[in-house]
Amino acid sequence: MKERKIILPEKDMPRKWYNIQADLPTPLQPPLNPSTKKPASPDDLSAIFPISLIEQEVSTERWIDIPEEVLDIYSTWRPSPLHRAYNLEKALGTPAKIYYKQEGVSPAGSHKPNTAVAQAYYNKQAGIKRLSTETGAGQWGSSLALACNYFDLECTVYMVKISYHQKPYRRSLMEVWGADVYASPTDMTQSGRNVLADNQDSLGSLGIAISEAVEDAAGNSDTNYSLGSVLNHVMLHQTIIGLECQKQFEMVNDYPDYVIGCCGGGSNFAGISLPFIHDKIRDDKPVRAIAVEPEACPTLSKGAFTYDYGDVAKYTPLLMMHTLGHDFMPPGIHAGGLRYHGMSPIISQLCTDGLVEGRAYGQEGVFEAALTFARTEGILPAPETAHAIKCAIEVALECKESREEKTILFNLSGHGHFDLTAYDDYLAGKIKDVDYPQELIDQSIASLEKIK
Amino acid sequence: MKERKIILPEKDMPRKWYNIQADLPTPLQPPLNPSTKKPASPDDLSAIFPISLIEQEVSTERWIDIPEEVLDIYSTWRPSPLHRAYNLEKALGTPAKIYYKQEGVSPAGSHKPNTAVAQAYYNKQAGIKRLSTETGAGQWGSSLALACNYFDLECTVYMVKISYHQKPYRRSLMEVWGADVYASPTDMTQSGRNVLADNQDSLGSLGIAISEAVEDAAGNSDTNYSLGSVLNHVMLHQTIIGLECQKQFEMVNDYPDYVIGCCGGGSNFAGISLPFIHDKIRDDKPVRAIAVEPEACPTLSKGAFTYDYGDVAKYTPLLMMHTLGHDFMPPGIHAGGLRYHGMSPIISQLCTDGLVEGRAYGQEGVFEAALTFARTEGILPAPETAHAIKCAIEVALECKESREEKTILFNLSGHGHFDLTAYDDYLAGKIKDVDYPQELIDQSIASLEKIK
Predict the structure, then answer these.
(1) Does a structural domain hold residue B404?
(2) Quick check: A15 contacting B, CB < 8 Å?
(3) Structurally, how many domains does chain A consist of?
(4) Are A5 and B10 inside 8 Å of each other by CB?
(5) Within a domain: residue A336?
(6) What is the pTM of this model?
(7) Residue A327 belongs to what domain range?
(8) Chain B interface test: which of A5, A376, A418 (most B C-beta within 10 Å)
(9) Chain A residues with beta carbon closer than 8 angstroms to that of B1
(10) Which residues are B290's β-sheet partners?
(11) By three-state DSSP, how is residue B382 classified?
């Protein structure tokens, strides 16, 4: 009988996160204050973030200790298993070895709690009583609800109104963990009231929900804001994924030629790939890191690398990143977690420097790959995750063609238990590739302010 | 940092199931042919079951080899982790040690695939092309769909019509794994057509769905029927759970004083408890096995121990078991998996012989326990599973009172990702205890045929 799961003992869980800012060939450009357009100072950020996270945001220390309290909570589900996908390999007839890291085993069902728990911890340490955040489909909101529950923090989630009503399961999950969830736009913030004054029936958007959450945090001294992707400290916390993988590959005396993750704001891709990119930069390992996006929101593949805002209302600092423009409205694809106009500055810089490749796929092929995976490996993946699976299958089939026994690693970033409506639509033949006209992307990018 | 998870290496997974029929103080009464009321012969059963499963049903061999092909599929998620519930212990302030076996990690989200995979394997070996079964909420149907997918068998699921429409997610999951799912009553079977002739708008019931699935199997030589609980071979396959627990307790040098599981037809409770009851019978271990039921369907606590049918239509053999009467209609509680009128003959006999205790709890306390668990250990349990949690908490609080450092083990038989509507209702104060008038139970039992 073949061993299918490579299990790292709890006692061997990594004790430090890896900070790639120590090793970037090109240092990151600083975030800019949205009013002055000058580099943002720590003071600009301290109204909504604790100083410890602001420090992590700019640190160039290579290794950062994971606090004991965070490790203790990680250990309720970590280390996560690394699976060898024997069934999938056999079904594809590929000589390639396919591995996947199972991040769906966390209580919230994705990799998101890796940073949620850390952020809740640092905010608790700073004496904060409550965290506010936004959520679309609810993956991030439920992870932060879980994390706040562990540290006895209150949690306020502004959930995009249309999701609040269409995806009640994720909302219930947040409430089970004690969070207060509001359908955004609300009448509790000025930005929410402004939207409602314009349109009483607004269904909301992630941009509006971010504005509400930031306003809530900025206006209450006991409250901070928490973000689930894009920022450097989020990427940092997620590196536990790739660091575990490295130890697990050692256990089976293997090493990946390809590291693949889906990419929305960048956090799960960064989590699995940055420790391997460390090896590529420092030890010249020939590993290829592939960030996979939907064709309908091709930030890395077709976006500009420039300064842009994180939200529609321009409340957030300007970040130097790949962007489709903060006004870009991606089509309503099912992988909601990949619909963001921007991208992690770290991943953007790595892509510009040729250390990360972007690939984009259409929805139909992505769901086909998801079904192939569910029917071979058993596990139902989230539609976001299925983008990584699609790419892994493509690479494995290239290996079949070339008869190369390459090692492929992808991040199974989350399960699809709350996404069955999307599978239903796919099985009913209702999911089609959605292309976004290049001229609209060009237009959205052209309208960005030029920052000197 | 405390170790929270006790992980058994894949290579140490048990290679044999434990058959308690070798050790029962009182041998089981035989099943009876529903027409003749004489002991059913293997021939009576061979129209719908393969001979290998019929043999397991009556075997008194203590140890039965798990086929290599079944072990190979088990290894996609097994051995499942044994967790030490440090957070829950702390929240309760109990000196007791609480452990839970995490069966929610299977692709279908519960312990059910342990037998589904075995049944699919034996049917495949027997040359069968298709399995038929019934499902209520869909836990069992999705497990059999998964298992048939692994062995390239067709799978036909008769899903109670009201669930088919109210719980589309479980239906989608079955379809993802390639099963054909029909809303029962259908017009594809005589029993379905009979019901529809009486009432075109019938919402269906488990009793009707069983009749359809059995009729389908009996009438097609390439098709067999598969049942997810009650029968002896199902209990046998589930013993992998308890056998793993025994090895895991050895790893931490501990042993349970209490083994607790929720109990509908008996399969997850049997799975975790039978290997420990083996130790109690043979080695005089003072372990207490507690089967937990809803007050609204108290089969072990208030049912008669007598011969009864498994279904409303009286198609199935008569089994000697605890029963509330095959006409008993339990109230529509949220733990649908515990609404069965009958009980595994093995568990029934063990209860009669004092080796198993039954306990019943009301819904409100059960959901309160579920929330306590979700907010301490993070994991969202299925409402069925929450019955076991309620009992474990009660025992732990008794230990607090008596200052005894007992060791408690319960089976986390499944996650609640598809049950969030029930949690929603609980959080909205809509879940109340449902008592069933004793006279109605007495009446249902009194109406049973007397078999000599």
Answers:
(1) yes
(2) no
(3) 1
(4) yes
(5) yes
(6) 0.96
(7) 5-10+67-109+233-450
(8) A5
(9) 10-11, 68, 71-72, 75
(10) B260, B357
(11) coil
